[in-house]
Amino acid sequence: MASVSTSCLRFQPLLWQSNNTCQAAQRTSLKLVSVSWAKSGFPSLRATRFRVSCAANPLTMQKVCDIVRKQLVLSPETQLTPETKFSELGADSLDTVEIVMGLEEEFDINVEEESSQNITTVKDAADLIDKLVQKKAEAGA
Amino acid sequence: MFPSLLRAYSPMKMRCCFQRSICSASSSLVPVQLPSPMETHFWYVLPDQVKSVSLLNQYMGLLSPIEKENVLSMPGHQLQKRALLARALVRTTIARYQINGHVDPRSLKFKKNIHGKPEVVWQSEDGWCQPHLHFNISHSSSMIACGVTSNSRIGIDVEEKQRKIKNNVLAFARRYFSLHEMEYLSSISDSEVQHQEFIKLWTLKEAYVKALGKGFSAAPFKTFTVQVKTDSKRSFVLAEDLVFEASEIMVESLNDPKSLTSSWQFALLELAGSHYAAICMEKDKSIKVGMKVPVRLTAWKTIPFVEDECVSGTDAVMPIGGLIKL
Fold this sequence. Notes:
heterodimer, A: mainly alpha, B: alpha+beta, twelve-stranded mixed β-sheet, fatty acid biosynthesis (chain A), PP-bd_ACP (chain A), fatty acid metabolism (chain A)
């Protein structure tokens, strides 16, 4: 499971998929956690309070971060957390719309304009994408 | 000293309004009279021109604790500076109009309406005189602007002319703009011109939605068309004023054709050679439907507390769309 060391914390991928371990992790409040996904090239997420969210697929999160970084031309040192607001990264409305469009292309989904107005954070985007991808999979099945 | 008193009519038909008032370091703001009906005041600051650390600290001192927190939470110096200048511009601009005795930019309080549009909270003792000052701000990475009107809702948007669009322009227009707008952009063969027209359309649409003040979901971009009817560019002198009629800009709602989109007036400008700026304001109620009344525009390039330069009538402000009186 999770072991806290001074420099980094590694989550096993199982944590995200298994409901049981997810709940267990939620009961634990983690303070000052630094997560680095060296192998898969995840951006390093640093948060003072890291909430484990079952809805956020780490792969989705990574792709969202990549697209956001590309659109906003962020320096590699800029930290991105699930709660980071696009506006806090200097994105204006045109940037946000471009990000949504980039996400639509990446995930082959269609985001309703009304929903896209509600995407203000990295997590909003990832959650919506997962929902739409799932809906699409169910429709196709 | 009010800029309007210093306008000189030049026989060369070019009115140059070049009032440079350099304030001493005693941090005073040159007071300004409120705009008249159908008049917009447009104030802008170029972040690259603001370098003094002590000046930036002075601006920081104007902000509320929450505003300070928001500024400092931005990642990186450039973004912090931009956020700081935006708040400083809004506060100092509104303070210039000295409404209800508010001369100190620090004393202004802001709130958001139910749709999230920022407004001033006017505190007057008797509360009987509610000021009708409306404002809206916009920023690109290299310009921050604030538009001010009396008694008329306003929305503005500024964008760099050369702003890079990561997606394909037509794909973007197909996805987000109305059919008519997409067809208009498709008809342009030169990709540079197409890019420029895209940016102009974006700023106009953005300004309209911001003027409505009901949030973006109230008027999704696909549901209305902004049309720029380009006649041959004409400019003529009307009494002492220079009136530009570059084109007629109209907005039409696709969902609700009966909605009062004819009550909105647009102005499109090229600023400082580098930016497009769109202004959308509500027509004065006294103007009959169908009457063409120009938007009076006065524009200042400012470094609050340091320098105000009235630039309307100079090359810095080029009208490129709408009916504008400088």
